[in-house]
Amino acid sequence: MNSVFVVLLAVEVVLTLVMVGIWLWRSFLDMKEDDHLTLDDAEAHLQREQAGIRMRVSSLSRFLVVAAVVWGVLAVTIMGGVIVTQLQLI
Fold first, then answer.
1. Which of 7, 40, 45, 58 is least enclosed, having the fewest CB within 10 Å?
2. Total domains present in the chain
3. Nearest CA among 57, 76, 64 for reference residue 15
4. Percent of the chain with pLDDT over 70
5. Does some domain include residue 22?
6. Domain-located, residue 78
7. Half-sphere exposure of residue 81: CA atoms within 13 angstroms, side-chain side
8. What's the farthest any 2 CA atoms get from each other in the chain?
9. Is 40 left (phi over 0), alpha (psi -120 to 50) or beta?
10. Is residue 82, in this structure, part of any structural domain at all?
11. CA dihedral of residues 76, 81, 83, 88 (deg, nearest 10)
12. Mean pLDDT of the chain
C-alpha cells in the first residue's frame, strides 16, 4: 500500500470516530428536547432552555451532514485509488 492511502485511511477512521461521537452527542441532546411545552410566565426559563437545545441540535445536524459528505467523498477517493492500484498490478 502506498503511504498516501494509509494516511487517507487514517483520516477516514478519525473522521468516522468524530462523526459517531457527534451523532451520539446529538442523540443525547435530542432526549432532552420536548416536542410540545405548555408553559406559563413563571416557567419562561424552560422555554429558553429548550430553544438552546434546539439550536445546538440543529447546528450539530448541519455539521453531521457536511461531515457525511466529506466522509463519502473520501471513501470514494480511497476506493478509486485502491482500484486503480490493483488494475496497474494486472
1. 40
2. 1
3. 64
4. 87
5. yes
6. yes
7. 15
8. 74
9. beta
10. yes
11. 160
12. 84
